[in-house]
Amino acid sequence: MGSELHELKRYINVDALLRYVEERRHEDGGYCFVSLLAETNINDTYHAVKIYDLLGLDVPNKDETVEFLYNSIKPQQATVALAMAVEGLAILGAKDLAKEKLGLLFEKYNPIEGKFAVGLGGSEEFGASTPLEATYWVLKALSALDYELDDEVKNSIKEFINGFKKREGYGVKQPTTTMTYHALSSLSRLGFEVQKTNLFKECEVYGGFTEVPLSLPPYLEPTFYAIFGLELIGDAPTYIRAHINFIRALQNSNGGFRRSLEMGISNFQNSYRALKSLVKLLKSDWEVK
Fold first, then answer.
1. What is the CATH number of domain 2-283?
2. What pTM was computed for the model?
3. Among 224, 249, 250, which Cα is nearest to 237's?
4. Which residues form a coiled coil (predicted)?
């Protein structure tokens, strides 16, 4: 990652971002994007781990963070949070500890019994999560552990995902960038063919992507999902340089990234999305426009 880290420093203030993350690490090994005054949580700790991993850096006091994630996997946690904690442990090299908690995860996510996220909880974004989002996170966690599902389970999940099919993509009432990526990524992880879609291109503007076609403004989360959705279907964004500049402009003075040009405080998941998207845009062989 050394050369990529150097390249990123040409576009954003990586040192400020790392200070932003480091200053929000608590004594228990967890993180909270607000400050040391608020309680640590799985979401922020997971994304802190992902940021360090993406940059090829060691997580400070890793053993404490491993302990925090392991002890955070409790029955009252939402399915998405449990999956994030399991994947976080795997990234930190604690796969054996993560596997110990799979029983609890499968109590809340059991496709054969029609359980696609018991005690759904909050979304990674805002408001209520959807079972499709939970499916995406559970499959990411299992993939990190090289855990193979049997064909009956895979087919049950595929049938469930296809229940969200809406015209060019996937969604609850209409196709959205985020849910379409969640669906296509999940189908790909299950080993099923991923079909082409025009939805991502229909949501592309000159600098960012929107959640649905013919809408403004662009936000970071659909930009992130669209970039990797296009990669998944073998396509590419049209305005590479404009997307890079859009993401760069989202970095706040504290080093973190917000979700839109208009407003927003920094948080860890958007900071990770910004980094991951920039790395992809800068290192890909996509034609720059």
1. 1.50.10.20
2. 0.94
3. 224
4. none
